Amino acid sequence: MRVRNAQAGFTLMEIIFVLAIISVLIAAILPPALERITEAKVEGSIGQARMILQICEIARTKALTTSVDAQGRYTHTYGSLDNWASTTVLQSKLTNNYHLPTKNALDTQILVKFDAARCYVAVDLPFLQSDYGGYSTETVGGKTRVIVTTRIKNSAYPSWVVNQKRILHDEETR
């Protein structure tokens, strides 16, 4: 009978050495991968905010009431949303044809507001960073809120021409 002294597996030292190498590789690769995932979620949330911004513009420019005075001039009354509110509030100002999400890819609530000039949609980031991507930002609860908005449209005419046209057409502005 023969006795075999051949090794039938890995030694404990070999297993520990391989696990140490794997843990070093994971420590080097995992943070950048997670950072890229977060960046993709932020960019997706900002893209979603831009789309909601277009719907917000519809709600902002929707006349709630219209009245005509004795001279035949029309006066429109528009809604406003002065404080940050959920998209459900914006949804209530629209018809049932629009279905707005309440949360974004970062799993934070989508907030909107608008005034007479333009709409604003907020994206709350899970970290603090000033001047994110050239957008307006504000700090809320120790984290950054990116404010996506439309630019005020400049007319091709000087402002006095626009005002003169409004006067000539008896147009009332907001």
UniProtKB/TrEMBL annotation:
Task: Cite the entry's keywords alphabetically.
Answer: Membrane, Transmembrane, Transmembrane helix
Q: What is this protein called?
A: Pilus protein
Q: What domain of life is recorded for the organism? A: Bacteria
Q: Which residues cross the membrane?
A: 12-34
Taxonomic source organism: Pseudomonas veronii 1YdBTEX2
